[in-house]
Write a structure and sequence with these properties.
There is one protein chain. The chain is of the alpha/beta class. The protein has one domain (2-129, 184-265): Rossmann fold (3-Layer(aba) Sandwich), CATH 3.40.50.1820. The chain contains 11 helices and 8 strands. Helix 9 (223-231) links the parallel strand 7 (209-214) and strand 8 (236-240).
């Protein structure tokens, strides 16, 4: 297990592959293990790929303290400094996309290109998870049945057709059981998400930006992708038809190809 000093905490990370550096920023309730091997294998062919655990998750420092999305962005910047990476291509998904927005706004010199996947900016016109989906997740999480909670999370995070893939679910279940993020940490991440709002500042963002969103996203509806792309000057919007929130699980080769193409144009 590798640890890097980021300010007052240590972040657990994995680094593999060759090429320009690519920092991957995971979303709520995820760890560095939740990207999925198919995506990472694709990316590591072309990038020096860095994945890590957020504070209080996985093997990183357990602070037990409240934090904001901006705090998580400073952690990401600290990790790059610790690894002596002056600048990197950055891909953030869901909550990680919110962290990536704050990172790009606070440290534009560190961003070679930015990919924002299935994420949210806050502000008028944005949309968080619906009450019905949140209620379904909360009921499963509070049931005390870990496998029920993971199955419910799977079903709302991917399209119905992909949810029926039992081999893919078996991998998701194994990761969920082995690398579970504690419920209090997930609740703190949710609190940080509700306080996130970069909408008024995104027009200031100058990093070359790719926005990716699935049309069947139940966690952060696709309107968020349209909104973010409309706010960031010169950004490119890629809509994946028939795909849910975890687009990089459903279409790992296509996701890697999009990142690869975007990085190549902005090398």
């Amino acid at each position: 297990m590798a640890l890097a000093k980021a300010g007052d905490i240590e972040l657990s990370f994995d680094r593999a592959g060759s090429g320009p550096p690519l920092l991957l920023i995971m979303g709520m309730s995820g760890t560095k293990h939740h990207w999925g091997d198919p995506l990472l294998e694709e990316l590591r062919r072309d990038f020096d790929t860095i994945v890590y655990d957020h504070r209080d998750a996985g093997d990183s420092t357990k602070t037990g303290e409240p934090f904001t999305i901006a705090d998580l962005a400073q952690d990401a910047a600290g990790l790059l400094r610790a690894l002596e990476v002056d600048s990197a291509h950055v891909m953030g998904i869901s909550m990680g996309g919110m962290v990536a927005q704050e990172l790009a706004l606070a440290h534009p010199e560190r961003i070679r290109s930015l990919t924002l996947g299935c994420t949210y900016s806050g502000g008028e016109g944005s949309s968080l998870t619906s009450e019905s989906v949140m209620r379904r997740l909360a009921e499963a999480m509070s049931s005390g049945d870990r496998e029920r909670a993971i199955r419910t999370a799977w079903e709302v995070n991917v399209s119905a057709s992909f949810a029926a893939d039992e081999d893919a679910y078996a991998t998701f279940l194994e990761d969920g059981l082995r690398y579970a993020v504690p419920v209090p940490v997930i609740m703190e991440q949710m609190r940080a998400i509700t306080g996130h709002d970069t909408s008024a500042r995104l027009p200031e963002l100058r990093a070359p930006t790719l926005v990716v969103h699935g049309t069947l996203d139940e966690m952060l509806p696709v309107q968020n992708g349209h909104m973010i792309a409309g706010l960031i000057p010169g950004s490119r919007l890629e809509i994946l038809d028939g795909v849910g929130h975890l687009f990089f699980w459903e279409e790992p080769q296509r996701s890697a190809e999009l990142v690869r193409e975007h990085a190549a144009v902005n090398a």
